[in-house]
Known about the structure:
Chain A has helices at residues 12-37, 40-47, 51-57, 61-78, 80-85, 90-107, 109-119, 129-150, 160-179, 187-200, 209-228. Chain A has 242 residues and is mainly alpha-helical.
Amino acid sequence: MSEAAGKRSFSRRPRAERMEQIEAAARDVFSRNGFAAASISEIAAGAGVVEGTIYKYYENKRDLLLTVLQRWYESMIADYVDQLAGVAGLRNRLRFVIWRHLKSIKDNPDLCRLFYAEVRGSDDYYESTLYRLNREYTNVLMRILRDGMAAGELRPDLSIALVRDMIFGGIEHHVATFLARRGELDVERAAEQLTDMVMAGIVQPPPAPASLGLEAAVRRLERVAERLDPPARGEQQDTGPC
Amino acid sequence: MSEAAGKRSFSRRPRAERMEQIEAAARDVFSRNGFAAASISEIAAGAGVVEGTIYKYYENKRDLLLTVLQRWYESMIADYVDQLAGVAGLRNRLRFVIWRHLKSIKDNPDLCRLFYAEVRGSDDYYESTLYRLNREYTNVLMRILRDGMAAGELRPDLSIALVRDMIFGGIEHHVATFLARRGELDVERAAEQLTDMVMAGIVQPPPAPASLGLEAAVRRLERVAERLDPPARGEQQDTGPC
Amino acid sequence: MSEAAGKRSFSRRPRAERMEQIEAAARDVFSRNGFAAASISEIAAGAGVVEGTIYKYYENKRDLLLTVLQRWYESMIADYVDQLAGVAGLRNRLRFVIWRHLKSIKDNPDLCRLFYAEVRGSDDYYESTLYRLNREYTNVLMRILRDGMAAGELRPDLSIALVRDMIFGGIEHHVATFLARRGELDVERAAEQLTDMVMAGIVQPPPAPASLGLEAAVRRLERVAERLDPPARGEQQDTGPC
Amino acid sequence: MSEAAGKRSFSRRPRAERMEQIEAAARDVFSRNGFAAASISEIAAGAGVVEGTIYKYYENKRDLLLTVLQRWYESMIADYVDQLAGVAGLRNRLRFVIWRHLKSIKDNPDLCRLFYAEVRGSDDYYESTLYRLNREYTNVLMRILRDGMAAGELRPDLSIALVRDMIFGGIEHHVATFLARRGELDVERAAEQLTDMVMAGIVQPPPAPASLGLEAAVRRLERVAERLDPPARGEQQDTGPC
DNA sequence: TATGAATGAGCCTTCATTCAT
DNA sequence: GATGAATGAAGGCTCATTCAT
Lengths: 242, 242, 242, 242
């Protein structure tokens, strides 16, 4: 029902307007109360229609919720690829994706909460348009990763999907307290740190022990060479005692 | 279990035993139907008591859910620290934490789903015992990270909390399809990959400093060789000493 | 009334009509069982609607009760003032008020019992419309009393409110056994006696001032007679002149 | 059960003590919450016993309420007649009864409210001990009234029962706002006014028109007598001109 | 005598959804 | 297309009372 957006184009305008009214009201009420506590009658009142009218446009309450979230995702995707095109370099692109995701959450915590709490994890999600949109959305990151891997910038043994999980999962976990209205969210800082961590990992790169052994070996060779031919040119090395 | 069909047939039991019966039944029913669709009467029937009895032990339906999940968390925490004590080395410990978390999810996907879908994200969560247990649980990882940082094994500029978010968030995102009964979960593989990714990041390390040193050393050796025997032949190899 | 047994058989009715149906059924059920023992489902069945319909018109069970009693009060007030306008003289008006109140109780003992037992004395009563109606109702008496006082017919030192309490309280106490189905109620007799008692009090009036004056006058006449004809006979009587 | 207060005298002490504890707790809880909202478990907790124990002493919750109110009535009756014996004169005695009743209400508004709201008007009341006590209590007034009537102090045509209704009903109506915690209660003032009103009624005793006519007639007769025999002795009268 | 675990019957209420107008 | 009255199922929860221990 909601998918069939406008069959007869000559009556499309009022229909689209009605739907916008309803969806705006629904977004408000759902955001404020959550799905279960939201009532169709309140949404109807907010949209200036009666309950029955809503069922002319949406199959049921849940369809309305999904539609509201769909609109959100559509708006998020709209200029995503375009904007990304202006960002060059693996790191920058990765950071952009992370930053943008954090920003979307910060800008619409209520919708985000709805999505996390009411939609994702439910059985019908994987058959929904919302799921397809979500895949489209996350695929942007996947492509960046694949490109980076093809370019040799990323380790070839990685599971791209797992990297995606780590990024979106990490973000989601990070914003949990913010979404629960129990903490702030510093988008810039989190984006920077997450990008950094994802890129470079967490371990302190130790002075590579392997090359130390090689170094030592080379030095011994050099000493040998020096005995044969004492240093006289420009390069300095620490030499052992005689 | 459902033999007690007689009228007013008591079966006075110690408090703990009754609670175990009820909680077992509740775990089943909640797991099967989710919170909303679970009915107290079904739980009561499963436990072999009447509905009223349940309210002697639990404030309300939600309290019962939280208690069931509490018991799960308690059991997860029970031997956690002990087991971890047997694991040495930052990487191993990190991998153990990740592996164990994945394993808990794989072993109890239903409870896990309940926790994600019904509890976390609700308003009362942050005041619940469950929240305290969850903090206790995640603190194990936090301590490992802090120790690793103190030992200089981890980069000192990290946000420990963000590392935790990335790990648990990454796991959660990764298991989503499994929890939705739409995919398998390879605990070992995921643990290994996640540990690796978290530790080392995703970028292809640029030719390590060691190899840089080797290059330099080789050049020096070439120069030595040139002194002994000016270049005349085509191929060069490192030869042993006399 | 209960013909509508078909599945999903609507019988769309104007709002007022539906409410009348429901209130009639409610009045019956409440009267028969009292508030607590009355069940919404029984009321709904009696009204030929389903339970949910009742909640379209009334907030809750109690609101329904209050509405039922409101209607009663409204009907009592409807022609009250008009009828009273046809009654002249303080005593007659007072008697009419008392008589009418007794009559209302006799005509609707069930509603009256409901009002006394379930509403008056509860916390929400003083905020209810019913309370306002009750004040309106009793104010009719108050005005009569005030008028009587202004006209000098009533003692000026009276507390009007206390007179009202004595009248309505007296009536209420008097009808208690009748309401408890343990006695009869003779409206005419009670109205007459109460009016009389309220008006004149209970004490035996000492020989009225008028008779005192008569006594004195007779004595004076005797003295006049003595002057004309000094006492010589035994018995004295008042004799005419000449 | 509660009526059989102490069969075996050797275990009476502890039994009586227990009952006192329970009744004290019950009085508190009933007073605070009313009958319906009072829970046996709260009463039990307040008395330091378990629910089951209460049923050893009282048949059921209502029996406990009636017992609590019985104790109150017993205490009210205890010294009633004695005190009244010290009051002489119909008016004084009547005022004492009214005053004492008002005072009892003021001292125990909660118990009074319970009695009015929960007991009186219920079906079992007329069979209860409480009813017998109440009759005993009101009979004190009835006797006063009968005595007053026999002594000629009260009008012989009164319905004693109706006078009682007017007094107790008037009091009850008057204290209603106080019991609803919405007004104060001035015992002395109310007692005085009510006594006065009951005794003397509300009408302004008019200068008896009948005796005025007689007076005038007598005066004419006196003027006749004066013409026959002009005034010369000590008694003064207001005489007309001429 | 005291305990206190267990009983068990019901009712109010909600609200998404339908469909006659 | 819009209306909005009516549906109707479903379930959490309470608490006085009982009775085995």
